[in-house]
User: What shape does this take?
Amino acid sequence: MPRLICATCGTQYPESPQPPAACPICEDERQYVASGGQRWTETAALGRDHAVVWGKEAEGLFGLRIRPAFAIGQRAFLVRHRDGNILWDCLSLIDRAIGG
Ligand SMILES: [Zn+2]
Assistant: This one.
């Protein structure tokens, strides 16, 4: 059973036999539902035509983006440090570039 991802905001939802009735993130007054209505995708489908791209922002700091852009264009940051790594924020896709 796939975990559906809202194609408008990029939020992933738990496995379910039925798609969610709606995306509460997009139904919030600060977001929107696309004029064509709610659309869903899943990780495998997203990974067929999108990829995670790394970019060096500074020494030890990397930006990760999905290309071509997806949903609201989220960007995550990876801070690499000898004492451990920190991933700040999240992406809708995990692929081989980031260990998926
Ligand atoms: Zn949404």
